Amino acid sequence: MVHAGDPRRVARALARLDAVHIAGYLDNFEPHEQDLVFQALPAERRPHVLAAMRYEVAADLIGRRAPEEAAGLLGDLQEDDAADILGRVDEARLREILAHYDVEDAHALEELMAYGERTAGGIMSPDVFSIHHDVTIAEATRMVQTADDLPQHVHYLYVVDEHDRLVGVIGLRQLVRSKPDMPIHAVMTTELVSVTAETDQEKVAELASRYDLVGIPVVDDQRRLLGVVTIDDILDVVREEATEDILKMAGAGQMLVETRNFSASFRARMPWLLAAAAGGLLVAASLQGFEGALQAVPALALFMPVVAGMGGNVGTQSSTIVVRGLAVGYVETNRLGRLVLREVALGASLGALYGVGIAVAAPFLGATSSDPVHLGAVITLGMMGSMMIAAAVGTSVPLLMNRLNIDPAVATGPFVTTSVDILGLLFYFWLATVLLGISG
Amino acid sequence: MVHAGDPRRVARALARLDAVHIAGYLDNFEPHEQDLVFQALPAERRPHVLAAMRYEVAADLIGRRAPEEAAGLLGDLQEDDAADILGRVDEARLREILAHYDVEDAHALEELMAYGERTAGGIMSPDVFSIHHDVTIAEATRMVQTADDLPQHVHYLYVVDEHDRLVGVIGLRQLVRSKPDMPIHAVMTTELVSVTAETDQEKVAELASRYDLVGIPVVDDQRRLLGVVTIDDILDVVREEATEDILKMAGAGQMLVETRNFSASFRARMPWLLAAAAGGLLVAASLQGFEGALQAVPALALFMPVVAGMGGNVGTQSSTIVVRGLAVGYVETNRLGRLVLREVALGASLGALYGVGIAVAAPFLGATSSDPVHLGAVITLGMMGSMMIAAAVGTSVPLLMNRLNIDPAVATGPFVTTSVDILGLLFYFWLATVLLGISG
């Protein structure tokens, strides 16, 4: 329908869809299709659709509108959403758009954009409803009733003292159920979880999840209220961080880049292959001494892929379990030695099981050797060794990275498989020279 | 401290920690340590700690208490949490515990446990506050004020008609701000998102995230209200599903099993290695025809790991991007062919880049060959081929699985690396026989 480009049919179709669905389509459309659909939307629906789109795509779309129109559209969004989109618009365009804001609003937006993208400040909404601790329940209720700038997702009221410092919180439900003449400070909860603007967004999500909160207040070093991180943003963070960890572990970049953009994909993925390529060269160099053995028993080469592959698989299992376990707090970081030993024992058992199976099957597949028993032993012990090395590397590398405060998810996958290729195959060939009595 | 086993010191330490922290420690303790700490807790704190623990660990702990005490502890939890824990207690123990409930409560719990674990029914709370649509705002407010069984996390009131059918929703904030004499049906929101008890939990999480909701009502086929899924459970679902996807992709099981339990780990990981082992045997069998080539040019074996490894890495990148993209809705499933072509082109470009690099470096590493130029060509083209195959397999396998309604995350990793090992290395050796003029 969009391809046909009939604006009236597009408009009729849009009237039947909600903003979230339209945004979902726009996220996957080509730029000219996005513009056509956006144009066909009634003006009052545009901000809703924009707010529901992915920030990167919304920023591109906004960048293609006239600066004045862009400023108008963004002005109808919540401030934190507007800042998230504007933060992804290029610098020159950003200046042009901000020029259409009044000075104070532009300043507020710039302040929001100044916070680190992955911090509480970067995801918080500065619209937060706070009340003085001496106010009564009846007065507070009246304020909620008459406020015309009440933020969209209010579930808690934050209570501040005369220095604007956060001293407590009261839920709407508590407000409704308390006696009208009580002062707020007598009914509010004073044990509350708060974060600073610099707190990592992952930490904020963890707190919300552990304490079952739908909003977490953000305070400065004087405990003055700066804003609130709401649960809808926290949900996005949890998804985003999971995606990031998955991609990093696979060495596939840090975020899902536009799948349409070839050169962006190329740039995101190229560097991660460097480890594997350098590792591959190292493997070739280190196995070189065994050319003689290969010439004597070429069947050795046939089992290189399974020795390296099984090791790589076990290493990936170990490192994945450790990396994800660290992310969700399942790993006892104080018991490193025990964990590594346990994984190595697992690698040895799994290696023995599969190694014997493959060694027994080998002759039937026609792997020729003058000495099938010793070749079988080389395969079995080689697989066990490779899988033990893999388990040790896969477990200890992310644990050590975590201790050194390096993100354990970064390229764990390629690193583990490459080091297993080198160490596992070296061990395999060393075994071959010893057990088959051939010189390297 | 727990090791020393001094109950008084443990009790003093516990007094300084909140329930969530204590639960976090308990999750990682040995059973006898858990019992010791739990015993040292004041009785009124025990349900809070229990509710914050991981369900599996809480179920084990509950299973070790006397049935009567267990029933008492669980009676203080929210019904959905109690059902989640009880659902993990073994059958005989469960009967003993339920015998201490009154018949009606036991029945309600059993009903909750009967819903699929990963469905809206399985994660919903049956405690939901609903009001009749003819009630006025003032009356509804009074009901909220006086209800003594108000669920813990009430942010919305659900509105039902005379047949108990869900017809609308009103937020507490809207309730506070509306005129007292208005009937609820005049101010409620009638466009509301609801799910059925059978809806997959992943779908529920997606809806909450897209529509920024802190609760989603669950209805039966008559639209009668069964319960509500609250945001805290949704947050847990998002984390759990991400963990599951990560582990499945790596072939490391479906959930993070107790890292202390050796045999559970062995059982969870063994089957996933079967694909790699079977694949390894297939590789050995299919490369067998090239033993002659290996004897003539043993240097070919040195570059097998890098050809297979680079392919495996690219394949993992492609499949990870597609699997995660499908999970978060970034992938245009209607453009399968284009996506595969693009990934194959990426594989070819990356393969050309790294292939030339490795071929040029090969002679310096001392890879001896009577024909270094042709060996270089075999390495470069072999890597390009292997990486193109990997990109094609890595992209199309999860996309096809998705079309066939099979979870694309299941063992994509091992499957992709194994098929790349086979196809990539076959291509590499075929190239060698052609370009180096040796017979296979």
Structural features, described:
The structure is a homodimer of 440-residue chains. With 440 residues, chain A is mostly helical. Chain A has three domains: 7-114, MgtE N-terminal domain-like (MgtE N-terminal fold, Alpha Horseshoe); 130-247, CBS-domain; 262-435, Orthogonal Bundle (Tetracycline Repressor, domain 2). Chain A is 63% helix and 6% strand. Chain A contains 22 helices and six strands. In chain A, the strands form two sheets. In chain A, strands 1-2-3 form a three-stranded mixed sheet. A three-stranded mixed sheet of chain A has the order 4-5-6. In chain A, a hairpin with a 5-residue loop joins strand 2 and strand 3 (166-171). In chain A, helix 14 packs across helix 15 (231-249) and helix 21 packs antiparallel against helix 22 (412-435). Chain A is elongated. The mean pLDDT of chain A is 84. Chains A and B meet through helix 2, helix 11, helix 12, helix 14 and helix 15 of A and helix 2, helix 11, helix 12, helix 14 and helix 15 of B. Chains A, B: Belongs to the SLC41A transporter family. Chains A, B: The chain crosses the membrane at residues 344-365, 377-401, 413-438.
